[in-house]
Amino acid sequence: MSQQSFSRGQWKSRVGFILAASGSAIGLGNIVFFAANAYKFGGGAFYLPYLFALFVFGIPVMILEFGLGNFTGRAFPESLHRIAGRKGEFVGWWANLNAGFITMYYITILSWVVGMLFGAFGALWRDSIPVPAFGMAEGDLANPYAYFFHMLSTWKPIFYVALVWIFNVVIVRRGAETIESATKVFVPLMWIFMILLIIRGVTLENGIQGVYLLFTPNFEVMKDPAVWQGAFAQTFFSLSLGFGIMTAYASYLPKKSDLTSNSIITSLLDSGFAYIAGLAVFSILFAFAIVPQASTIGMMFFILPQGIGEMPGNSVIVFGVVFFALLLLAGLTSSVSLVEALVSSMRDKFGWSRKRTIAIAAVIGFAGSAIFALPQVVNPGLEDDGTLGLTLLDLFDHWAFSYGLLIIGFCECILVGWVLGADKVRLHLNSNSAIKLGAWFDVLIKYVIPLALLVVLGYSVWGEIRDGLYGSAFTENYSEGFSVLRFAPRLALAYWLIICSVAALLLARRGSFAKAD
After folding, report:
1. Which of 45, 47, 239, 298 is the most exposed place for a label (fewest CB within 10 A)?
2. What does R_g of the chain's alpha carbons equal in angstroms?
3. Buried b vs exposed e over 160-195: b needs ≥16 C-beta within 10 Å?
């Protein structure tokens, strides 16, 4: 099979690369899920396990992914192909396809953010909104619950999905060049918006009490293994590891880049943003005695807007718009990196033009995102997810996000650590880095991190066996017309595994990679 050559492009500056990489890592989870986990796992006590996981677990894997991409000059599938042939390439494509599922429903969530942003200019803060599609009388649910579910029961999110995909296409249209330009605007704005929310939160009456709670550790909870599992999982997910993103981004760097320092700076920017987000969340919520939830969607669309809605005067609209604009910017910098990781991999394989590759990815991606936005009401009582799209999103997120990323993290550590040899990547990293890595890096990649991932995965699988497959009980309240959804957890698991595995196998067996100029 003949392949045409193509130009991969390159970052214009180190600052642009760091902003793009940190923007990818800083996403919706940093703003709301980190604070929710901190509340769930004892406030300040969660920070110590998180810091331990960051330095022992997160930063080394970030260094590995940066080193892998720069060492090979290719995206994830070809990088792993050069290490372990077709088997390695299979793992790379499996990671990209798993990330593809996440990309589709992540963009659907961003479409809901767009809808809430429009509502934040006024409609979101009304006293009550009737939601007849869900069988609720006017006023049965206080906003923003009613506004959110009313929006989900319409076709508006499909339009918002198309809008978010257009944003992504525009930003990735020239690869590193346009991504760098966008993140140089988006990332500073994210920090500015977050600082505005912090200032408003701590100046509210009793707002500072939430900050005290956040930094008052309850050391007793650190004896609970779930705290450490939550900290390790939060670190891995927060840094965008296991997607193939960081490998693709690092492949656009010059060979003589200081990868170790770049990895540390990117990781600290990401974790730093999560920490200051905790200040905003805790101060705003505890000022009005609102309890956080360990749920990203609940925190984004219900709990934090409820706190903002309690603010006095016209500040409700101002800070409501700032909050949802912040979510949109953070989400876009992450979704762009997800799209670029897949586009980069496809171009490495087939040598297609960037325009053609983006068009294919956008068409397929829009179709998938639209499915997760389907407004058909399947549970009028809202005991669970309400609409068909949100139900499917909940299921696929459980498998692709909670399991897929950890599986890929384990596989890449095994391939780099044992097949290629962690020492080879370390030598490449040390050749141009101010901070030199010792043999301890090899030990972490070969032994410590894979073992930790196996423990987390094993703990999760044991929970599925002990408590029943995820979602096995959540369909009891669905109407008879959707009784087929009682099988949805198993069907989602099978579909996810089959699509990722079969498609990855076909891609790995298809010809050779294209040559880059």
Report:
1. 298
2. 22
3. bbbebbebbbebbeebbebbbebbbebbeebeebbe
Domains in the chain and their CATH numbers? 24-373+384-509 (1.20.1740.10)
Cβ contacts of residue 29 below 8 Å, gap of 6+?
A: 234, 237, 238, 296
SS3 126: coil
**Helix and strand element counts for the chain (H, E):** 23, 0
**The tokens of 156 are what?**
């508006």
Q: Identify any residues that bridge with 217 across adjacent strands, giving them in sequence order.
A: 43
Interval 491-513 mean pLDDT: 93
Instruction: Report the amino acid identity of residue 102.
Output: I
**Cα distance from N-terminal residue to C-terminal residue, the chain:** 19
Tokens 């399991």 correspond to 403
**Nearest in space to 461 (alpha carbons), one of 407, 497, 409:** 407
Q: How far apart are CA 136 and CA 146, in angstroms?
A: 9
In degrees and rounded to multiples of 5, residue 294 shows phi and psi of: -85, 55
Which of 15, 438, 68 lies closest to 242, judged by CA? 68
Instruction: Give the Cα separation of 266 and 246 in Å (integer).
Output: 10
Residues 6 or more apart in contact with residue 145 via CB below 8 angstroms: 302
Structure tokens belonging to residue 369: 């995102």
Alpha-carbon distance 7 to 228, whole Å?
44
CB atoms within 10 A of CB 158: 18
Nearest to 150 by CA among 122, 121, 116, 120: 116
For residues 64 and 83, the answer to whether their CB atoms sit within 8 Å is no
Cα separation, 246 vs 238, in Å, equals 13
Q: How many CB atoms lie within 10 A of CB 46?
A: 27
**Cβ–Cβ contacts within 10 Å for residue 302, how many?**
20
Q: Give the side-chain half-sphere CA count within 13 A for 354.
A: 19
All residues at 6 or more sequence positions from 422 whose CB lies less than 8 Å from its CB, including other chains? 64, 416, 441, 442, 445, 446
- pLDDT value at 125 more than 90: no
Closest Cα partner for 28 from 416, 362, 338, 353?
Answer: 338
* Of 232 and 185, the one with more pLDDT: 185
CB 404 within 8 A of CB 167: no
- The answer to whether the CB of 301 falls within 8 A of the CB of 169 is no
Residue 32: pLDDT band (50, 70, 90) is confident
| pLDDT tens profile 381-404 | 555 557 888 888 988 988 998 899
**Could you give the C-alpha distances from 345 to 166, 237, 287, 509, in angstroms and in order?**
21, 21, 47, 15
> What share of the chain has pLDDT > 90, as a percent?
53
Comparing CA positions, the residue from 460, 249, 448, 449 lying closest to residue 336 is: 249
The answer, yes or no, to whether the previous bond of 217 is cis (omega within 30 of 0) is no
pTM over 0.85: yes
Q: Compute the distance between CA of residue 492 and CA of residue 499 in angstroms, rounded to an integer.
A: 10
